[in-house]
Design brief:
heterodimer, A: 113 residues, mainly beta, 4-stranded antiparallel β-sheet, 57% strand, B: mainly beta, 6-stranded mixed β-sheet
C-alpha cells in the first residue's frame, strides 16, 4: 500500500464550485504539506502543517484553505474554484525527527472549467 | 524572499556525465535539496546538503558552496531512465518549509 495517498486522483469541476482534496499518510510523520505544480513553474507551497495544531500559509495560499483533521490527514479546500486553479496538486509529508526528505503523494490533477 | 535559478533544459547522451546547476538567494540558509520527477510521477528525494562539499550516492552526487550560494547535481553514467525533471529546493531557518526551483528537464539520448 502507498504511504501517502491522495483522493481524488483526477477531478474536473466548474467555476464557483467548492472542492476538497484529501491526503492521508501511514508513515507516522508529523509534518504535512500541500504544493501546486504548473508547467514551467516548479512546485509552489500552498499550506503546511508541522503538527495538528500548527497551520501555516505558504507562498500562494490565497483562494485555498486547509484542515489537519488528524496527524495522518491533511485536506485542501478550494472554496470557490476558478480556472487559474487548474493545476497538479501534491501532498507531501516529512518527519521532524528524521531526515530532510519529503515524501510525495501521487498527485491530484484538477481542472476548473 | 527566496529565489532559485536552474537551467530549464539539459540534453546529454547515454553513458555521459551531466551537471545541473542551482543558484539561490535566501536569508538564513539551512540546506539545499534535490528532487527527481519523471513525467506523470511524483517528486522523489535525491539528496540534501547542509555543509559545503560533495555528497555522493551511487551515480548521483550533489555539491554545495554556501559562500557562493551555489550547488549542483552531478549525474554519472547516464541511463535512459534518468530522463526526468530535476528540482533544487532550499530551506531557510526563518521559513520552515522548502522553496523549489522551476526545475531542469534532462533528456538523455541514445
Amino acid at each position: 500500500d502507498a504511504d501517502v495517498t491522495q483522493t481524488p486522483r483526477n477531478r474536473i469541476t466548474k467555476t464557483g464550485k467548492r472542492i476538497m482534496l484529501e491526503c492521508s499518510q501511514t508513515k507516522g510523520h508529523d509534518r504535512m504539506y500541500w504544493y501546486r505544480q504548473d508547467p514551467g513553474l516548479g512546485l509552489r507551497l500552498i499550506y503546511y502543517s508541522f503538527d495538528v495544531k500548527d497551520i501555516n500559509k505558504g507562498e500562494i495560499s490565497d483562494g485555498y484553505s486547509v484542515s489537519r483533521q488528524a496527524q495522518a490527514k491533511f485536506s485542501l479546500s478550494l472554496e470557490s474554484a476558478i480556472p487559474n486553479q487548474t493545476a497538479l496538486y501534491f501532498c507531501a509529508t516529512s518527519d521532524s525527527r528524521g531526515s530532510h526528505e519529503q515524501f510525495f503523494g501521487p498527485g491530484t490533477r484538477l481542472t476548473v472549467l | 524572499g527566496q529565489s532559485l535559478e536552474q537551467p530549464s533544459e539539459v540534453t546529454a547522451v547515454e553513458g555521459a556525465i551531466v551537471q545541473i546547476n542551482c543558484t539561490y538567494q535566501t536569508s538564513g540558509f539551512y540546506g539545499l535539496s534535490w528532487y527527481q520527477q519523471h513525467d506523470g510521477g511524483a517528486p522523489t528525494f535525491l539528496s540534501y546538503n547542509a555543509l559545503d562539499g560533495l555528497e555522493e550516492t551511487g551515480r548521483f552526487s550533489s555539491f554545495l558552496s554556501r559562500s557562493d550560494s551555489y550547488g549542483y547535481l552531478l549525474l554519472q553514467e547516464l541511463q535512459m531512465k534518468d530522463s526526468a525533471s530535476y528540482f533544487c529546493a532550499v530551506r531557510n531557518t526563518g521559513r520552515r518549509a522548502l522553496t523549489f526551483g522551476s526545475g531542469t528537464r534532462l533528456q538523455v539520448q541514445p
